[in-house]
Amino acid sequence: MQHGRHKWSALILTALAAAVVLTTGAQFRQMHRDEVIVPGPGVTQTRMLSDYFPALAGTTGDTEVYILDGEEPGATAFVLGGTHPNEPSGLMAAVILVERAQVKAGRLIVVPRGNRSGFTHNDPQEGSPQYFRLTASDGSARTFRFGSRATNPLDQWPDPDTYINPSGQKLSGSENRNLNRAYPGRPDGTHTERVAYAIMELIREENADVSVDLHEASPEYPVIHAIVAHEGAEDLAAMTVMDLDMEDIRMRLEKSPPTFYGLSHREWGDYSDTMAVLMETANPSQGRLRGRTDEALVLTGQDALYVRAAELGRLYVPYDDEGHPLEERVGRHLSSLAALFRNMEFVGDGEPFVIEEVPSFDEVMANGVGYYLNPAPARD
Ligand SMILES: [Zn+2]
């Protein structure tokens, strides 16, 4: 009798253990599978980052490079999303360019997942959601990853106590997995430094006239609603900010500090001929003052604790019950990019860059982000 009871409890425990293994295994597998991007009619070629630095091939550092060639010649622009995979507006603005935009003059190169490894995990102890879902133009569901600010420790471990980046700046150890501290990269360096090196190689090989790194910042961070420009891109960024002001979109112009090494807006400009620019929108889901962290916070950007912080004068952006929804942040990036592209013909060699089908701030606000995404393809 005793014996039989043990047998039953052993069977039940084995079944429970199997259920746990299968569910977590499925979740783990899902986290290592890229979300779908559906290239639109403007994409003329899809390459990989390893085409510019072959050592990345077959690693999680490799990622898609979408090329949109215009019918007419013109300037070349490079847009990088997903440097920090916990900053969804940069990813989504880049994805909308790939899925919608059509270049008439010039060449657009888009990498939506700059640090692809960072999309395969979450920041520990932050309680972040793994995904956020949007409804595409045909009503189908499109799923995107909310990842980590840093490279997955599975790809790069352990962290040193102090990180000395390729330009010799000393940083805290965990920053060695931050793509935006690793420029200009090292061909024989860490995973993150090799990705940074590959992006530098892309900028140099493609002769990008302008290069934009799309980010978000927490509302209590001073560099926000801002365009940070390398000195080589100051005229372009100033004209862009003035254009946006006429559209009632406030973006500050910040100069890239000359001794803040490792960052895209500094090293892209120092180590190539490109005009290097970084853009920041306001994302409470990565902030320190936030309350419950879930998919709703990622999408609506509404948080009562941030409203209170704004009342106390602690924030660098306006913040009320409307919050900063994803459509406002993606619209801000897209309108900023459109203004920057328009002004290309007034700087450098004066080559034009003409792009169509980039939704404006007002359009994304009215229709939402999903409206500008292509239908999800059938997938197993
Ligand atoms: Zn960032």
Can you characterise this structure?
This protein has helices spanning 2-31, 88-100, 191-205, 234-246, 264-270, 295-300, 304-311, 326-342, 361-367, and strands at 45-48, 64-69, 72-80, 102-111, 131-135, 141-145, 162-164, 170-172, 210-217, 226-229, 252-255, 275-282, 354-356. It has 380 residues and is of the alpha/beta class. It folds into 2 domains: 1-31; 38-372, Aminopeptidase. Strands 1, 2, 3, 4, 9, 10, 11, 12 and 13 form a 9-stranded mixed beta sheet that branches. Strand 5 and strand 6 (141-145) form a beta hairpin. The longest helix is centred in the first third of the chain and has 30 residues, at 2-31. The protein starts with a helix and ends in a 13-residue tail after the last helix. The model has no long low-confidence stretch (mean pLDDT 95). It binds zinc ion. Zinc ion (ZN) binds next to loops.
Could you please say which CATH topology of the largest domain applies here? Answer: Aminopeptidase
How widely separated are the two ends? 47 Å
Q: For this structure, what is the CATH class of the largest domain?
A: Alpha Beta
Broad shape: globular
Task: Specify the oligomeric state.
Answer: single chain
Q: Level of helix content?
A: 25-40%
Hetero groups in this structure are: zinc ion
Estimate the strand proportion: 15-25%
Structural class assignment:
alpha/beta
Series of secondary-structure elements, N-terminal to C-terminal: HEEEHEEEEEHEEHEHEHHHEH
Q: How many strands?
A: 13
Number of domains: 2
Would you tell me the overall average pLDDT? 95
* Largest beta-sheet characterization: 9 strands, mixed
Contiguous helical run count: 9
- What Rg do the Cα atoms give? 22 Å
Unreliable segments of 5+ consecutive residues: none
CATH architecture annotation name of the largest domain? 3-Layer(aba) Sandwich
